[in-house]
Amino acid sequence: MNKIWNQRLGQYQQKLLKYLRYVFNDHFVIALFFVFGAVCYGYFNFIDHYVHPLTFFDRLVAIVALMIILQIGKLVTLLQKPDIVFLLPNDYRINDYLIKARHHSMIMTALIQISCGLITVPFLVRILHFKWFDWVILIVSQVLLKWMQLLFEENVLFDQKWNSGQMQLLKQGISLIGIAIGILVSPWMTLIIAVVSWGGMLQLRKKANYHVFKWKDAIAAEDKRVMRIYKFFSLFTDVPEVHQKIKRRRYLDRLLPRFQQDSRQTYKYLYWRGFWRNSEYSGLFMRLTIIGVLLMLFINLKWVSLLIGLLFVYLTSFQLIPLANQFYDIVFTHLYPVKPSQQLASFRKVLGVLTAAQVVIFTVALLIATHSLVVAVILVIGAVGIELLLVYFSLNKRFNKGA
């Protein structure tokens, strides 16, 4: 079982590195550098100019922030669907496999909790007046609470009663009480609660071995965890593991163009219908637009907000290009009396309308954040340039090539 874990961990890490190369490409790294710098500047500028007296709302913000950070990271088991057949004879050795999975998950979640916890340190020190040893204890407690949650998730794989609403409420309740006491009273009390809860959950984990391992539930949980990662990667590149979900949305029928007898409009209708019904494309467009608007409103720097707007216009348009080939594998569409050039022209119109709508939203957000008409005009001009480059270069290369 240890050999199987080591092999799968190596394959999993190789796949992550493969997609990370596409995520952190040269252009995105440069844009991320500017965004990260702007966010840090805005954050520290806010901390330095915060002169209000300490209130309960300040403590509440810290509690909510730490609880959100605590939700990052899940138990990594790397189980696969064939395991329910091929590894079933080794069911009695599953604990050896899970110990490896637990240790890996603990290391990764500890790094995440420490990294994200350090972001809250300026807020804790400057606004909540924490001493340096207090925030160290609080972050250590945060790691132990996360380990407690990992053991909780491991127990679910043996006994489904741990997955009930009451038990999930208990898991989050212990963490919330511990963090709240640390912020409101003393971080040392949080450390005591974290150590007791982690130790108690470790003992309960040993008792869970008397139950039968739930292979289907464990595989389903792992598939759900991995799919969240793949969906993030799909924002930057094509990920074959992400399956498209088609939903019938009758309330969006009014946004579809009227069906016309003109064959040149056939693909225009199909593309709009495919965009709204496919959550991969419509959801991606909505998410990137909302994230871009929030960043532009939060970062009150003209040129950085402009770069963020142009970056998200590029990311959105680039990720919508695969929609052009959505109907290529459907044999009946090849019977349509529509030339490929007409199909390509229809997609350009659809992509142009979506980009124009996003640019209008970004322009309004930029005007609200910067009050600069010049920067807004530059955003529009830059977005038009990006669209022309994508439509006449990248789209022509990837059209009808299964890209």
UniProtKB/TrEMBL annotation:
Keywords: Membrane, Transmembrane, Transmembrane helix. Signal peptide: none annotated. InterPro entries: EcsB_ABC (IPR010288). This is Protein ecsb. The chain crosses the membrane at residues 27-44, 56-79, 106-125, 132-152, 172-198, 284-301, 307-328, 349-368, 374-395. GO terms for cellular component: membrane. The keyword Disulfide bond does not apply. The lineage of its organism: Bacteria, Bacillati, Bacillota, Bacilli, Lactobacillales.
